[in-house]
Amino acid sequence: AGAEAVKRAVQLDVASRFQESLVCYQEGIDLLLQVLKATTDEVKKRHYRQKISEYIFTFLSDGKYHKQIRIEENATGFGYEKVFREYLTEIVSEVWVEDPYIRQVHQASRYLLYNFLRFCEMLVKGPCKVKKIHLLTSYDQGSGRSQQMTALEEIKRSLSNYGVTLNIDFSSSIHDREIRFNNGWMIKIGRGLDYFKKPQGHFSIGYCDFDLRPCHETTVDVFHTKHTKKM
């Protein structure tokens, strides 16, 4: 079934039906990975690994894949799991987060440090095996810097209890927002991790479950690093 899904993906690719091809590639590779897990014969395992590697190379080699998600104003159902989970494969062990506004807990309508914490919780839950998270952000201003550092250090200590190292760096010139995984996927969100609206109250629906939290309008663009050109 996995091989048939990949063959269908190639046919769709040739027909320039790229988004449908992407879905079939993903489905076929996932099916083959399931077979690989269930196989005990080492010869068959090597065969399946080789075929999966070939399919993944085909899937990623031509640079035609760019997925865009448009999140409408007040839309719900766009928690971090919904946006990121399909790219967090089991081989993901390292994550880079670049966002200039991971700072005060309360900054206008933003809960930015809590958002970053929620993102880290998603990584810890898996199915990926993240060991390192790299955060590049900017310093908060004035008295907020102390609160920012205290919160980030607490997140760092908590992650260490799960075998995850958080490396924190600061830049005064950072503007772009992007998240990268070491399996090659790169996600750019117009508002970074801060695309959720402020909850109505601490005991309102959507406060804990981000899938139920209304969103600000934004765009999510997904690329693979083999698809991007270095300037």
TrEMBL record:
Domain MITD1 C-terminal phospholipase D-like, residue spans: 77-224
SUPFAM superfamilies referenced in this protein's UniProt entry, alphabetically: MIT domain
Pfam families registered for this protein in UniProt: MIT, MIT_C
InterPro entries xrefs: MIT_dom, MIT_dom_sf, MIT_domain_contain_protein1, MITD1_C, MITD1_C_sf
One Gene Ontology term, aspect cellular component: midbody
MIT domain boundaries: 2-56
Protein's GO biological process: midbody abscission
Annotated coiled-coil segments of the chain: none
Matching Gene3D superfamilies: MITD, C-terminal phospholipase D-like domain, Phosphotransferase system, lactose/cellobiose-type IIA subunit
Protein name as annotated: MITD1 protein
Source organism of the structure: Copsychus sechellarum
